[in-house]
Amino acid sequence: MSGIYIHIPFCKQACYYCDFHFSTSEKRRDDMLKAIEIELVMRKNEMEGQVDTVYFGGGTPSLLSTNEIN
């Protein structure tokens, strides 16, 4: 059983208790999403077998559109 964690670092506001890397600015959003896509492609052969779960976490993944998640 294996999973992938994808850190989405965008937040509408900073929470005082959060220890994750995040940004309240979406100025570089497209660059970050492209970098995540490139890293997924580069690492595709590192896992053996089937991926059972994909976790989205970090900031507020729900800020992404359906197209951006796809």
List the helices and strands and how they pair.
Elements lengths: L1 E7 L20 H14 L8 E8 L7 H4 L1
Parallel strand pairs: 1-2
How would you describe the overall organization of this protein?
This protein is of the alpha+beta class. Helices cover 26% and strands 21% of the residues. It has two helices and two strands, in the order βαβα. A two-stranded parallel sheet has the order 1-2. The longest helix has 14 residues, at 29-42. It starts with a strand and ends with a helix.
Our count of helices gives 2
Give the strand tally. 2
* Order of secondary-structure elements: EHEH
Residue windows where pLDDT falls under 50 for at least 5 positions? none
Query: How would you state the average pLDDT, rounded?
Result: 86
Helical amount: 25-40%
Placed side by side, the strands forming the largest sheet appear as 1-2
Distance between the termini: 22 Å
Classification by helices and strands: alpha+beta
- β-sheet strand percentage: 15-25%
Largest sheet: 2 strands, parallel
* Overall morphology: globular
In angstroms, what is the radius of gyration? 13 Å
